[in-house]
Design a protein that fits this description.
Number of helices: 16
CATH superfamily of the largest domain: Thiamin diphosphate (ThDP)-binding fold, Pyr/PP domains
Bound molecules: iron/sulfur cluster
Shape: globular
CATH class of the largest domain: Alpha Beta
Radius of gyration: 28 Å
Helix content: 25-40%
Structural class: alpha/beta
Strand order of the largest sheet: 7-6-8-9-11-10
Number of domains: 3
């Protein structure tokens, strides 16, 4: 408690005094601010007209902070998602024991269930403010109405050509090839029940993958799939990230699957970090952390609690290997859980780690090579099968001048990090040979320059020869 107080882990925003106040859990702060902004009671810089107490630490409750915040106010509202209203009940107890007369609201105004999105917050906060301090809403600007913009013919025309981009994996994410492989297996063996978990891999439930039947709590994907441990033609597949695995999945998911001889496939996505929450180290992180014991193997852990069918994939970008391993897991005669640990570093964190090192090496004059991928627009037919199996934000489309091509061809933009997934996918799915890799060399050596000149000459000669053999139609 002293630690929480001394380090000011809970925060106060807005004026120090006020008729009313808002108490919110830390995770809802942004939603509260957005709701207040739409009511004209906060600005985009986080300045609020209403006092706010943010409980970044919900447990233990720092009683004195709550009491200080509530004293002198007519009413406060507790923002807490989910049911039952644990924190609200705690505050009621706390206030009644001290005979504090401030009214406490929460789930009597806000919905009992469902997600507290910004519009939900806005509606709830508005009702609360109308009850106690109506004048605050006097300057409330109208909520922006998007209709005139969306009905503009130019915007409508744009909506027809710009493809919708649902939220998805980052550029170069190592989890994308896992789900591309799963799609390829699905094509061969049909659809399977897929239990998802919490973490980046949850993006696989959205296009272009559309994989995943259920989602439970952190580390509980395989535990939820245990309901499907019945005699059936197909095995269930459950997915869990490395964060979820160490959080509780090792015991609740894998342990129970081993104990119950659960005949399903468990896929552990090992991206070296708790990636979705910002890249914190976990037990299996590869980093050398002086304050933590990292580099603990997930494979050893699952074998340690009795799993026998365990496969390790060291490079998730190897789509063909991923596909074959999944297929083997789904079809093998061996009973009990089939566990695949698919490992490759989270690209977001990898880029954060290597970009400064790369830039420094280039600055120091060292020869450095950056891989980039591209699509040969002469070869690409524009069927976009690669996009449907990838969803990489860097892989897009562009128009060419080729009169024989009605559809735009695939194209890779400058944000490509050279993970190679699009090329691997197109090879594993036997799509087309349009993808090429280019090495961008910084600080080239004299040999690099010589090789480049030689290469350009040979290519130039071949191009000239092909042009000479082309049939030209008279105008
Ligand atoms: S944070 Fe890492 S693991 Fe998550 S989607 Fe981005 S690259 Fe993939
Ligand atoms: S290589 Fe392909 S999949 Fe990887 S980042 Fe570049 S465009 Fe995206």
């Amino acid at each position: 408690m002293k630690f929480v107080k001394d380090r000011k882990l809970n925060e106060f925003f807005g004026p120090s005094e006020g008729e009313i106040g808002i108490i919110t859990l830390g995770g809802h702060y942004n939603g509260v601010m957005r709701g207040l902004q739409q009511l004209g009671l906060a600005d985009v810089y986080g300045n609020s007209s209403i006092p706010i107490y943010v409980m970044n630490v919900a447990y233990p409750t720092v009683d004195e902070e709550v009491v200080d915040f509530c004293l002198g106010k007519k009413a406060v509202i507790m923002i807490e998602e989910g049911a039952p209203e644990y924190v609200e009940q705690t505050l009621h107890t706390l206030m009644r024991r001290r005979d504090i007369q401030t009214k406490l609201h929460g789930k009597d105004i806000l919905p009992l269930g469902g997600e507290y999105t910004a519009p939900v917050m806005m509606k709830g906060l508005k009702s609360f403010i109308e009850m106690y301090d109506r004048k605050l809403l006097g300057n409330q600007p109208p909520v922006p109405d998007p209709t005139p913009i969306l009905s503009d013919p130019k915007v409508k025309a744009l909506a027809e050509v710009v493809p919708a981009r649902p939220a998805g994996f980052c550029t170069g994410c190592p989890e994308r090839p896992i789900f591309a492989a799963m799609k390829l297996v699905e094509k061969e063996l049909g659809e399977h029940h897929v239990s998802a978990d919490i973490g980046c891999h949850l993006f696989s439930i959205l296009p272009p993958f559309n994989i995943g039947g259920t989602t439970m709590g952190y580390g509980l994907g395989p535990a939820s799939a245990s309901a499907f441990n019945v005699t059936a033609d197909k095995r269930s597949i459950s997915v869990m990230g490395d964060g979820g695995f160490w959080h509780n999945g090792l015991a609740t998911s894998v342990g129970n699957a081993v104990f119950n001889k659960q005949d399903g496939v468990i896929l552990v996505v090992d991206n070296y970090y708790s990636a979705a929450t910002g890249g914190q180290d976990i037990l299996s992180s590869r980093a050398i952390n002086p304050n933590r014991k990292t580099n603990n193997s997930i494979v050893d852990a699952v074998k340690g609690i009795g799993a026998t069918w365990v496969r390790q994939i060291d490079r998730t970008y190897d789509v063909a290997k991923m596909r074959d391993t999944l297929k083997e897991a789904l079809t093998t005669d061996e009973k009990g859980p089939k566990i695949i640990v698919a490992s490759s570093e989270c690209m977001l964190n990898k880029q954060r780690r290597i970009k400064p090192q790369f830039a420094k090496a280039v600055k120091d004059g060292k020869r450095m090579v950056k891989e980039r991928f591209g699509v040969d627009e002469d070869v690409c037919t524009g069927d976009h099968a690669c996009i449907r199996l990838s969803g990489c934000p860097s892989l897009s489309v562009k128009h060419t001048d080729d009169p024989l091509k009605d559809d735009p061809v695939a194209a890779i933009d400058n944000s490509c990090v050279g993970c190679g997934n699009c090329g691997e996918v197109s090879e594993a799915a036997v799509l087309c040979p349009s993808f090429y890799r280019a090495d961008v060399i910084h600080n080239p050596t004299s040999w690099d320059r010589f090789a480049s000149r030689l290469r350009n000459r040979v290519i130039g000669w071949l191009q000239a020869r092909r042009s000479a053999g082309r049939i030209v139609f008279a105008d």
